[in-house]
Amino acid sequence: MADRFKQAAVDRWLREAKAGTQFYDAEAKGLRLVVGSRGGSYKHLGRINRRGGRYVTVSIGRADEVSLRQARTASAEVRLALKRGEDPRRPASTVPTLQEALDRYLSREDLTPRTKEFYRQCVEGPLRSLRDTPMDLLGREEVRALHETITQRSGPYLANGAMRTLRALHNDAARSFDLPPNPVSRAVRFNREQRRDDAVAPEDMPGLWRSLEAVGCPIMRGAWLTLLLTGLRSGDVRAMRWEHIEDGVLLVPHPKGGRSFRLPLCAHLLGELEALRELGSEFVFPSPRDLSKPLAGIKRTKTFPFNPHAMRHNFSTHAMEAGVDHATLKLLLNHASGDVTFGYVTRAHLQGHMRDAVERVAARLLSYK
Asked: Which residues of the chain are modeled with pLDDT < 50?
């Protein structure tokens, strides 16, 4: 129950009240007098007006050093600061919001355009409700609930991707700012993800070749053939330029993961691609409508009903069947390896070895034609 504070009453409480007794001012909301064993002090209790704001207690001063009028004035100032969303106990926070953390992260030069676009889509899409939230105020319960909501609305894979993005941005901001433990790591139980089994069965490979021959557009047919015989990702195939091919070796400058690499192309593919050089475009696979631009996309059709990424799975499976060892297959797919010994291998010196592996895989795939 609140009391109407007067200076005389305050002096009496300090003399007579038991230590630990608290009196609340009826006139100044949030102001209270806390009596101790050797006097007392004024404090203000209030809630910070922002997302995740909590109740805080702000010390104003000892009652024998601060008058009641001064305590009420200071209490009013604290109340206004709390209303502005500030914490009077510490300086104004310079911790970035999620949107600012994204902008900071995307300024890195080691990120591929596709990675930047994915992060931007996550923050502007499934994570948009958190964009204006300072990174130190991301709560575990809030993040966990958001993951469940995205899972229900957009599916388990997008929900997991959004949370990985949030986790990465939090870790990056934590390198420069004093942040609490990562809420994603502590609160989110990621959805189970099942790897797709997209490799084409051997008995279905002849049908794949017949479907490929039926593709009417030579540019699109060449793109599908490249996916089939290299295991490259769709974006890397669409970005191929003639200047990237030298002595039968393709330079992939901006792959996923950011590590450029060189990949030998099999003789059959090189021969098939020569017909496209006559189009006069700088791109190996230009847009049929505008030869000055790269192919916009590679999608399954009724004529060729396969997923572009399935060709990567298919290449990997047939590479193992062709006897390509696991370490070499990692090089061909440009997969990262945590093996310390693998880090001592200079892949530029293995082009002959890699070319032999590529030709072995191509021979197996072409055998079904």
From this structure: none
